[in-house]
Write a structure and sequence with these properties.
The protein is α+β, with helices and mostly antiparallel strands. The protein folds into two domains: about 1-135, no CATH class; about 140-275, Heat Shock Protein 90, CATH 3.30.565. It contains seven helices and seven strands. It has helices at about 1-35, 40-100, 105-135, 145-155, 155-160, 180-195, 245-255; strands at about 140-145, 165-170, 175, 200-210, 210-215, 260-265, 270-275. Strands 2-4-5-7-6 form a five-stranded mixed sheet, with helices on one face. The chain is elongated, with a radius of gyration of 28 Å. About 15% of the residues are buried. Residues about 235-245 have low confidence and may be disordered.
Amino acid sequence: MNFKKKYFFISITIIFLITQVVTFSLFYFLVYKLEFFKSDIWTIVFFSIFELLIFFLLSKEILEPIFKSEENIKKTIKNTLHELNIPVSTIKLNLDLLRDLKEEKYLKRVERIKKANENLIKLYNNMEYELKKELERVDLEEFYLKDALNSSIEKFEEQLEKINLEINIENPTIYCDYFGFIIVLDNLLSNAIKYNSENNPYIKIEQEGYVLSIYNHGTQILPENIMLVFERYFQENSLNKGYGIGLTVVKEFCDKYKISININSEEQGNTIVLNLKNIIK
């Protein structure tokens, strides 16, 4: 997509320059050489129309392949996503049937397949969402914070069994991109679990007014690395675990919806603070 944007702007610039050169050349020839125009007003009108016509014809000829290519990509992606959904649904259906098996060894294998399929579905949904953001308009909707949070927590149910989880929220109504907000919560919760204390794992999710915070017992982030954790692929050294790519996705979403995000890191743990003022109704 970035290549196409560059190509588009370069093409527009070239078209504009060519149009200017052709127009001024004609202007010079007709006005100064042939003395064709006597009135300044008619000169301006004629050359303005001529310039627009040249610009339109060149734009149509040069830019049309770009828009056709874009349309073909959209169709291909939508068809591919549709085809991907078929095997995923087939696996899920057969897994439901296999659960009737009683032998423990088979049940364990079924559970492994089930988890792999859930990961595949998650990847599929994420890819569909990212492509929709790029190619189409993402619809905004109203939902409760608690519902979104519960949806995210359910995905980490097994890992959270070993962690002391405390939740204290007022449950306001949110108005924004629902699936994108879920991805934000998923990444923040995943990091809170992954980089928690091994001896005393603890997560606290609080919301008061416009502020949502997620705290965990974890290794303190070095002060000079606080802002770097939002950089793609950034990792701290082995003594201070990094937050990886997830926070880049979070930051992009927050920037888009004007949600301020901060990290408070202390010896006792780390807190991610989101100000939801611009998306709370």
